[in-house]
Amino acid sequence: MATVLSVSGSPSASSRTGRLLRHLDQRLIAQGHRVVPLDVRTIPAEALLGADFRHPAIVEAAELFARADGVVVGTPVYKASYSGVLKALLDLLPQYALTGKTVLPLATGGSTAHVLAIDYALRPVLNSMGAAHIVQGWFTLDKDITVGEDGSLTVAPGTAEALGQVVDQFSAALRRSPVLAAAS
To answer: Tens digits of per-residue pLDDT, 84-98?
Structure first.
């Protein structure tokens, strides 16, 4: 069983990105993985913006990354890039915080004009942090994610199927990971 860190880079408590990640976490749990959620917005702003590497919340976040076998990184797309709070956290992690890890990048946004944000903005940063394997990411349009009055989440059928496939590919890549194979 792999430990997966599921990171929401949304600054909003009611974001579609965060809700989508928590929805996908359930699929990973059903596949036998242990999932640890991390909402970057819960890290104190003074720690993120003040680049306080020693702040307990930053130290804890770095430890979560270190203990994870795989990382799912989800972000809304703003101005053709990933969120500022996610950038602030990634900047405070050790340079090679993703060494040996399998990573799944996900993004949400209002327009298909932002679909390449994963490949041109997020993937290079994840790669520079030493990720062993970055699986194919997925961009989901906001209109394909509906949050009900009761907080329930509905994903448009075609999008749900595609997301299921990328999560399954991530899960399979985790199982093939040399780090996990060595631990067995």
So the answer is: 999 999 999 999 999
Give residue 84's domain range.
3-183
Paired tokens of 9: 């880079």
Please return the burial class of 150, using the count of CB atoms within 10 Å of its CB with bins 0-12, 13-18 and 19+. exposed
Residue tagged 């999560």 (tokens)? 167
Q: What pTM was computed for the model?
A: 0.94
C-alpha to C-alpha distances, 152 to 19, 83, 99, 144, 149, nearest whole angstrom = 9, 24, 35, 14, 7
Other beta carbons within 10 angstroms of residue 41's beta carbon come to 18
CATH code for the domain of 83: 3.40.50.360
C-alpha dihedral sign at 55, 56, 61, 62:
positive
**Any idea which of 7-11, 69-73, 148-152 has the lowest mean pLDDT?**
148-152
